[in-house]
Design goal:
5-stranded antiparallel β-sheet; Butyryl-CoA Dehydrogenase, subunit A, domain 3; elongated; 5 helices; alpha+beta
Length: 167
């Protein structure tokens, strides 16, 4: 039982770390001379431009930013609630509250990555002053980590739903 508990805790911490890196790091869209994320666009690693209200479709980027931040916060809250439930739940009860919060985190990261996937080309074309050198590129590791974090938080949420407290 102790090994299973350690695995679940490590899995959850890994999910949170993936969410932090995907949210903070500047590699959602990358190329040879540039990288871009949901916060800024950098060309030649020195010329960085923050994404702000001058940005066309700024509400779309704000939605991606907000849902990524919310997913990270919910994942951390779910971990704290899991630790509390370890000491508070009666034997045989399920970790339903932890599961619900972790699945909400999963939903948020899915929404953020889906919005970025769907709107990326339109965002780049309508903001040519930001993206004049970034048209040719590919999805970066932060974007991929966001989708991996989606899978991890989903699996983690299901594990908490199935898991019962034992001695």
């Amino acid at each position: 039982m102790l090994v299973l508990l350690a695995f679940i805790i490590i899995f959850h911490i890994t999910s949170a770390a993936l969410l932090f890196v995907a949210t903070i790091d500047n590699a959602w869209w990358v190329g040879e001379e540039f990288f871009a994320d949901v916060w800024r666009v950098c060309v030649n690693n020195t010329n960085c431009t923050e994404i702000d209200a001058r940005y066309q479709d700024y509400p779309t980027m704000q939605a991606v930013q907000a849902t990524m931040i919310l997913s990270t916060i919910l994942c951390c809250i779910a971990f704290l609630i899991f630790v509390l439930q370890l000491f508070r739940l009666k034997q045989g009860e399920r970790f339903v509250l932890t599961s619900i919060i972790q699945l909400m985190s999963c939903l948020c990261v899915m929404i953020a990555a889906s919005i970025y996937t769907d709107r990326r080309e339109d965002l780049h074309k309508s903001n040519f002053e930001f993206y004049h050198q970034v048209q040719e590129g590919s999805y970066g590791y932060s974007f991929i980590l966001a989708w991996v974090a989606f899978a991890f938080t989903f699996i983690s949420g299901l594990m908490y739903l199935i898991l019962r407290k034992r001695k």
